[in-house]
Amino acid sequence: MASTIVEARGVTKDFGSIQAVKGVDLSIAPGELFGLIGHNGAGKSTLFKMMLGLIPLTSGQIHLDGEPITGPRFCETRRKIGYLPENVVLYDNLTGLETLYFFADLKAVPRRECAALLDKVGLTEAAGRRVREYSKGMRQRLGFAQALLGTPRLLFLDEPTTGLDPGAIRDFYRILRELKGEGVTMVLTSHILAEIQERVDRLAIMEGGQIRATGTVQALREAMNLPLTLEIAGGAGLREEVSRAMEGLAIDSIEESGNMLHIRLSRDAKMPALTRLATLGDTLRDLHVREPSLEDVFFGYRA
What we know:
By secondary structure, the chain is of the alpha/beta class. The protein folds into 3 domains: 1-80 and 152-163 and 178-215, Rossmann fold; 91-151; 224-302, Alpha-Beta Plaits (2-Layer Sandwich). 32% of the residues lie in helices and 29% in strands. It is built from 11 helices and 14 strands. The strands form 3 sheets. A 6-stranded mixed β-sheet has the order 6-7-8-3-9-10, sandwiched between helices. Strands 2-1-4-5 form a 4-stranded antiparallel β-sheet, with helices on one face. α3 (96-106) crosses α4 (113-120), α4 (113-120) packs across α5 and α8 (217-224) packs across α11.
């Protein structure tokens, strides 16, 4: 098996005097659920469109599944790629099932796949309704269904949970887990960082058209060396006991809220702090170590 299914080297994209993508290098392994995060205008959607061959590169190279996107065999490769754009545009006068038939015909996929895909995304009961009657969330699910036509090996999902309610978001990620179990590679963007931080295998942070950092969420946390927070519940005299135990350690702050203490400390001080807290016995009723969120990491790299 190839070590990468997506490979970008020195990729740039200019729109006149504006350089939207600046020398991007990126490698994604087969079967990864890979996140691409960044603020609006960071270049994520432009990079997606170049990977799909929808817009030309200004310079650099992109290979998908071993094929250059400008090569003669890329059309065949693209048949095994699914794409859900950020803004799903559908024909309002078609029904949900007719919409999938339309895309199936474009992709040369048997129409018999369509009903099962509508069921997968929870639209069976709305299959015969006109798309004009669909809510934004239903349109998004229909767009996801079209991306799944043809059993793709590689999925590009641009803000895929836009308009979905919490239940639909849960179902969406359940489907992604099933696809990952089947070896499908998925690349997704999202502005909802808390939603993806425990779900992606790796991610890249993009800013100003460049990749600022790539790795697992935990690796990026450690590379930033952001402080941790210990959340401690206890009885009377908790603050005094804890403050005494923490003497000499690299503590940023200790804040009290009701019967809870919130201690910010360096990553290097975590284990010494936990060792000392373990000696306090019944003074402590509960303790939770809170790692920096993906949002903390993202803004740390932007600082």
